[in-house]
Structure formats: structure tokens, C-alpha cells
Specification:
It is built from 13 helices and 7 strands. By secondary structure, it is α+β, with helices and mostly antiparallel strands. It has a 7-stranded mixed beta sheet, with helices on both faces. α3 (33-55) runs antiparallel to α6 and α9 (144-163) packs antiparallel against α10 (166-172). The longest helix is centred in the N-terminal third of the chain and has 23 residues, at 33-55. The chain is elongated, with a radius of gyration of 21 Å.
Length: 268
């Protein structure tokens, strides 16, 4: 629901404190304790999501994390269990959409119980979840078979980039491949456009540290890559594939451009 182990633990703790502070007589009247706790935790999460949406952090120039943090192992487990691409897409949903979708599709909570949590009727809560589901799934721009072929190429590129293997990169890149990038993602003096398999491959090996945070996703209907440490989107690689190889890719880092991209979970 929140995409952060720290915030999730705070929400659970707050729900427990509310239960403890409830008068004993009122506690006896709680007929369904799991349902009561689910409702309270969900409302707390909804408040957190609304506050997060209201303040929407300003774009940051901070470097990508190196794996050091308060508890990187727990965050890594969260990302692994939920899915890096799904966390990114969930962050693009409205608070009520996210809560309705996670409760229903993730935990099979009925809409009659979701409705009062999001201050909607059951019918409206169902529409929230349906709208969220459509955004999470997205719409592929290719039929299943060509889409699967594109996916395999992008997967091979990501694996080679993570391993920093120049030979594997050359195998997956077209001879006349072109790499374009937003200025924000490049060190001063580096070219915005680079051409040729060997030059692009050498640049991509430098990209390897960031590739560890990569995940496949639908980017404007085609397989691409999200770079999202701890599930927070930093970069998108728009991939062009032709004849079974990467014909080109563009690194998008500008916040305005990132927000304009249509992102969805790539079908398995």
C-alpha cells in the first residue's frame, strides 16, 4: 500500500495504539477484529498517501543510492516481493485508487468493506479498483508474439548491462545503435547522442551500477526499463528493437518527461 517498510511499520503501530486506546467496552463490541484492523490500517495508509500526494517532493539531483541506508535489506525484500515495476506504477495512482486496488486485487477485501474506507459507495469503490487495474496493466502496442520478442531483447540487454559484459552487450546491440540521453543524467562533457555498437556498449558498461535497480515494464506500450531504487522511479530507458537487437535507446531523466510517459506492468 505504501511502498516503504518504515511507513508500513508506522501505520501498523498507529493502528495497534488506536486499538489499545479503545475503551474495553468498545473493544468487546468489535465483532471482527481482523476486519477492524484492516479498516484502520487502510485509513491510516490513505491519509499517508494523500499527504504524500499533496506535498509531491520536488525533483532531486541526488545520486542513485549505492545500497547503504537505514535498512536496505528490508527495502530490497519489499521491492522483490511486490515488484519494482509495480511499485512505480502504484505510485502513479491516486490515493483512493491505490487503496481500493491493493485491498481488492491483493487481499480480496470485498468492495462493501472497501467503500467506507475510501468514502465511496461499493459501486464507486469497484470503479476505482477497475480504473487502477487498467492503469497497472496498460495497453501493449504490439500483439503478444512480437511483444514477447521485444521483451527477450530488452531482458538480454539488462542482463548484459548488469554484468558489465562488453561481449554480451555487443551481441545484443545493432551495429548502428544510437543512445540518446537527457542532460540531467550525464556527467558534464558527455555527449547527448552516441552512435555505434562499440561506443554505446562501452558507455552502457558504466551504466551497470544503475542497472542493478532496473526492471522491465511497458513504456508507452513497448518493453522498456525502469531504474527505480527502492521502487522510486529515477530513470526510464525507452528501447527501440529491430531484427532481434537493440536499435537504440533513450535515457529519460527529466521529471516532466518522466511524468508524461505511460508506464505499466509488462505481462509475464
Amino acid at each position: 500500500m505504501l511502498g516503504s517498510t518504515g511507513e508500513a511499520e508506522d501505520a501498523v503501530q498507529e493502528a495497534w495504539l488506536r486499538l489499545v486506546r479503545t475503551d474495553r467496552a468498545d473493544r468487546v463490541e468489535i465483532e471482527n477484529l481482523p476486519g477492524w484492523l484492516t479498516t484502520v490500517v487502510s485509513r491510516i495508509c490513505l491519509d499517508v498517501l494523500r499527504a504524500r500526494a499533496a506535498r509531491r517532493e520536488e525533483p532531486t539531483d541526488e545520486p542513485l543510492p549505492t545500497g547503504e541506508g537505514d535498512d536496505p535489506e528490508r527495502e530490497a525484500l519489499l521491492v522483490e516481493s511486490v515488484g519494482r515495476a509495480l511499485l512505480v506504477v502504484l505510485d502513479r495512482l491516486g490515493p483512493a485508487e491505490r487503496v481500493a486496488f491493493v485491498l481488492h486485487d491483493g487481499f480480496a477485501v470485498p468492495f462493501e468493506q472497501i467503500a467506507p474506507i475510501v468514502d465511496r459507495t461499493p459501486v464507486a469503490a469497484k470503479k476505482l479498483a477497475s480504473r487502477a487495474r487498467q492503469r497497472v496493466r496498460g495497453t501493449a502496442a504490439l500483439p503478444p508474439e512480437p511483444l514477447a520478442g521485444h521483451r527477450r531483447v530488452v531482458e538480454a540487454f539488462l542482463a548484459a548491462a548488469r554484468g558489465g559484459d562488453l561481449t554480451e552487450l555487443l551481441a545484443v546491440l545493432a551495429p548502428d545503435v544510437v543512445r540518446r540521453a537527457d542532460p540531467a543524467v550525464l556527467a558534464p562533457g558527455r555527449a547527448l547522442v552516441v552512435r555505434g555498437a562499440r561506443t554505446v556498449a562501452q558507455e552502457t558498461t558504466v551504466f551497470g551500477r544503475r542497472a542493478r535497480y532496473g526492471a522491465l515494464a511497458l513504456v508507452d506500450g513497448l518493453p522498456g526499463l525502469l531504474i527505480a531504487p527502492d521502487g522510486r522511479l529515477r530513470l526510464v530507458l525507452r528501447m527501440a528493437v529491430a531484427d532481434g537487437r537493440v536499435a537504440g535507446y533513450e535515457v529519460v531523466a527529466d521529471p516532466v518527461r518522466l511524468a508524461a510517459l505511460e508506464l505499466a506492468v509488462l505481462p509475464s
